[in-house]
Amino acid sequence: MPLNAYQANITSIFERVRGETTAELIWATITPIIEARHQAVRSSRRYERDVSTYNAVGVSVARRFGATINDLHTTVGEGGPEVLLKQDGLHFVEEGYALLGAKVADALRPFVFKG
């Protein structure tokens, strides 16, 4: 999807959700890929530089709507994509999914248990 269409799409989603609820919003960033691994398994148009660009746009839009940012990209980057991603360079091994699940749970916890 072209970047401008992506931005328009998520802006529209945020506008709709914000118009229908006062719930807290959380935006999760796109996780890294390992291009060389992914290209070896399947010819693709997925590139890490695009992930970073789309994340920057997503975060910018999310902040305009007051969303909390859950930076899964950085979480995986710090955890080591080489060990957290499968041989396809895109999907996660069990440890990677566990790390992401914990990060998502941590982001939700303050909103779920407000008291």
Shape: flat
Largest sheet features: 2 strands, parallel
Rg is 16 Å
What is the tally of helical segments?
6
Uncertain segments: none
Question: Order of strands across the biggest sheet?
Answer: 1-2
Count the strands?
Answer: 2
Strand content range:
5-15%
pLDDT average, as an integer? Answer: 91
Structural class: mainly alpha
Order of helices and strands: HEHHEHHH
Distance between the termini: 41 Å
The residue fraction in helices comes out at: 55-70%
Description:
The chain is mainly α and 115 residues long. 63% of the residues lie in helices and 5% in strands. It contains 6 helices and 2 strands. The radius of gyration is 16 Å and the shape is flat.
Comma- or semicolon-separated keywords:
two-stranded parallel sheet, 63% helix, 6 helices, mainly alpha, flat
Short description:
With 115 residues, this protein is mainly alpha-helical. The protein has 6 helices and 2 strands. Helix 1 packs parallel to helix 3 (48-64) and helix 4 packs across helix 6 (94-112).
